[in-house]
Amino acid sequence: MKARLIATGQRDARVEGPLDFDTVGPLLAAGEALLRRPGALRIDLGGVSAANSAGLALLLEWMDIARSRRITLSYLHLPESLRRIAAFSNLEALLPVEEVR
Question: Residue limits of the STAS domain (predicted)?
Fold first, then answer.
């Protein structure tokens, strides 16, 4: 299955589909394009159907790009599978997750 990164507003985007070794390459490029806009970007991960360590690597790479461009990046609705991988890897504290109430 194909994954997509969709701009849902001036400063918001949503990922739909799986985050795995087959899908992160095109998503990296799509994220880089969105991270050219100045200011801040929130990426909603609520549409992620499955994720593995490649998905976590993608989120960390987007963070690195954002930091280098001085853009504030945050993630919404982090899937439990990514939360577990991040915790196991001692990377959970690095992810800018915005808790939604």
Answer: 14-101
The reported pTM is 0.92
DSSP count for the chain of H helices, then E strands: 3, 5
Second-level CATH architecture of 4-98: 2-Layer Sandwich (3.30)
Give the closest residue to 48 by CA, choosing from 72, 81, 74, 26: 81
The strand order across the sheet containing 12-19 reads 4-7, 12-19, 40-51, 72-76, 97-98
> For the chain, what are the domain ranges?
4-98
Show the tokens assigned to 39. 């200011």
**Of 10, 58, 18, 3, nearest in space to 34 by CA:** 10
pLDDT along the chain (101 residues), means of 10: 92 97 96 93 97 96 96 95 92 82 63
